[in-house]
Structure formats: structure tokens, C-alpha cells
Design goal:
Layout lengths: L4 E5 L4 H9 L6 E6 L2 H11 L3 E3 L5 H11 L1 E4 L4 H15 L2 E4 L4 H9 L1 H7 L2 E3 L7 H13 L3 E11 L5 H9 L5 E5 L2 E5 L5 E5 L4 E6 L4 H9 L3 E7 L2 H6 L3 H8 L2 H12 L7 H6 L1 E10 L4 E9 L1 H17 L6 E2 L2 H5 L11 E4 L1
């Protein structure tokens, strides 16, 4: 690796731009990369950084570039379409791979490349941001409180935030796809919102429902807890409507519906502005239970999700550049411990 440099792919996206602007706070220098030369050129001039124009299908150029920098922070989603090419190029180049995905399928794909990554001497780590650093750390923290835990529930909420284009586009890809849980070690498909519950996040109680959050994959890898459910905040009214989803999910899966949603996304701002990010905050709640019915719970709060993603991704990048990594597929908490999340400015955790 070249000193403090790393490749930031998808740099001109909302989260990539945020990471690039914050990198100097961690003594890091991103080399901006992606497909849009005009956007990268303007961004590089503004931030006084280098840039590289690369398409993921330019395999030889991508591998050569990865060999030069030794680490990529991949921020160009939807990762279901982009992650595999980048991971394979990283293995060929013997370069470390990080991304900010929250997609279960991408985590499972990265896990399947564990042996190849170990042979290359590199680390593959997906989910270095809001999904899944805070929830993964919560899962391990609770496992440490109750080593014999058999059940894990994780819930998250964002107060005052909004989605970026990239996150919204990823959600568009999954419209009508349903949900998932972990049951006795296996990932099992369920209807979206098949369960709901009220959660005390500290400031107030909020209603949540089950969604296929990344921890269905990662929390099992990190803790070995065989039964896992993940929840997010939703209005009780929406939750009630979801009981009819079998009647309309087919429509949400059509190109017509997804393209309509994509057009709506493109008419909106790329993501929350700086003032909105400062006002917003993220919250996580978790609970474990053992076979005897004993329970332990905890919660944490921190900065808004995109801000947290930039901090946590750069913290992990800095660790790898300094030589602190484990070869193969790794989850954030399994590699760096349950207190990794506490390294992020403004994060607070309490055991309930």
C-alpha cells in the first residue's frame, strides 16, 4: 500500500463524497474512482485529490489499479450488481476489500470467498457503515453478556434523517422481495414485516417490524447465535397494510413499478444536507435470550447513518493501512471487537 492512500470507488456518489471529505480527519488520502469522468474530475479539483476513471468491466485496468493502492473502499451500489466483480478483482490483485452494503446476499457471497481471500492474504469486509457496524457490535456485546444466547433481536431507527439516492435505489431493487430471518442457523424467507413490536430506544417507544437487514447474515457469523430477527421503525398503519402484500408484491417486482420508483428517486436531492445530518441521529436496540428464557438488552445512539458510515469506514480503512487486519472474510465486530462502534464520535452505549 502507498502510505495513507486507498482507492475510493463510487466516490462521486452521496456516501462516497462524504467519505472523501472526511478522510483527512483520519490522516487518509483517497484516490477517487468510478465511471463518471466529469463528476470525478470536478470532485478531485474541489478536494485536491487524484482520480481514476475505471469501469468494473475493465478487469485488467481494475486489477492493475488495485495492485497500486492495495485497498479499495467500494461505495458504488447496488452492491448485488457491483460487489462480485470488485471482490474477484481484489483477490486477483491481492488488495483488501471493504464496502458499505447492507444486502444479505452480498455478505453471503463475500463469505463464500473466504478461502480465496485467505490464500491471497487479504481481508474481505462488507458492511463497514451503518449497516452493519453498530448492529454487529451490539450483537457481539450482547453475546458477551449472555454466552449461551439462542435468540437475538436487533432493531434500529433514524430520527430526522433521509435516504440517499444509492440507498433508495438499492431498496428499489428489492421491492416485493419479502423478508428473511435466521432460524436454527439457516436463513429462512419470511413475508416482509411478518412480526412487529414496540421498542424503547431511550427517548421514546417506537413501533418496529421485521426486515431483511444485513445482520441476518453477519450477526450469525460474528456470534453464532442461531435465531436472529432484525427490525426497523415503521408506522403501525403501514404494518397493517403489509398483511395484504401477497396480493401486490408481484406488482412491486415488475420493471414498471421499479422504474417508476427510480424516476421518483432521481427527482429528489442526492441525500440529506449537512444541517440535516447534524440534527439527525441513529439508534440501535438489541436483546438476547437463552433457552431458559433469560434475557439481556442494550441500546446505543450515535450520529446520523451516513455520517456514522463515513466515520466507521475510515476507522476500519486506517486500521488496515496500519497492518491491523485478518485475512479472509471478516465481519466488523468479529475482527475489531464489540467496542469498535465506540470509536465513532458521538456513540453512546448502555446495558439495560
Amino acid at each position: 500500500m502507498q502510505n495513507n492512500q486507498f482507492l475510493l470507488y463510487g466516490a462521486n456518489g452521496y456516501t462516497g463524497n462524504l467519505i472523501a471529505k472526511m478522510a483527512a480527519d483520519y490522516g487518509l488520502t483517497p484516490v477517487l474512482a468510478g465511471r463518471n469522468e466529469k463528476a470525478l474530475q470536478q470532485m478531485a479539483a474541489s478536494l485536491q485529490l487524484e482520480y481514476r476513471v475505471i469501469d468494473l468491466d475493465q478487469t485488467e485496468l481494475l486489477i492493475n489499479t488495485l495492485q497500486t493502492y492495495g485497498l479499495v473502499l467500494h461505495a458504488a451500489g447496488p452492491f448485488a450488481h457491483t460487489a462480485q466483480k470488485m471482490m474477484q478483482a481484489c483477490i486477483a490483485a491481492k488488495a483488501h476489500y471493504l464496502d458499505i452494503t447492507g444486502e444479505i446476499g452480498v455478505f453471503e457471497m463475500a463469505k463464500s470467498m473466504d478461502a480465496a481471500a485467505k490464500a491471497a492474504g487479504i481481508m474481505l469486509m462488507s458492511g463497514t457503515g451503518f449497516d452493519v457496524v453498530p448492529t454487529d457490535c451490539m450483537a457481539l456485546f450482547l453475546k458477551q453478556q449472555m454466552p449461551d444466547a439462542r435468540f437475538l433481536k436487533l432493531a434500529f431507527a433514524t430520527v430526522g434523517g433521509q435516504l440517499s439516492h444509492g440507498t433508495a435505489m438499492t431498496m428499489a431493487e428489492g421491492m416485493g422481495a419479502g423478508g428473511a430471518v435466521r432460524e436454527e442457523g439457516r436463513i429462512v424467507k419470511k413475508p416482509l414485516g411478518h412480526k412487529g413490536m414496540w421498542v424503547n430506544f431511550g427517548a421514546k417507544d417506537l413501533f418496529t417490524m421485521t426486515i431483511p437487514w444485513g445482520d441476518i447474515s453477519t450477526a450469525y457469523t460474528t456470534t453464532g447465535i442461531p435465531n436472529i430477527e432484525t427490525y426497523t421503525v415503521v408506522s403501525p398503519k403501514v404494518f397493517k397494510w403489509l398483511k395484504w402484500q401477497d396480493w401486490f408484491n408481484w406488482l412491486l417486482r415488475t420493471d414498471f413499478a421499479r422504474n417508476y420508483y427510480r424516476k421518483k428517486i432521481n427527482r429528489k436531492p442526492s441525500g440529506p444536507d449537512d444541517a440535516a445530518r447534524v440534527r439527525a441521529k441513529s439508534m440501535v436496540w438489541g436483546e438476547v435470550e437463552n433457552a431458559s428464557g433469560q434475557k439481556r438488552a442494550a441500546r446505543l445512539s450515535g450520529p446520523e447513518g451516513y455520517t456514522l458510515t463515513a466515520h466507521s469506514s475510515l476507522i476500519i480503512t486506517a486500521k488496515i493501512i496500519s497492518g491491523n487486519f485478518k485475512p479472509g472474510y471478516q465481519t466488523p465486530a468479529a475482527c475489531y471487537g464489540a467496542d469498535l462502534v465506540l470509536e465513532i464520535p458521538g456513540v453512546r452505549r448502555e446495558l439495560l
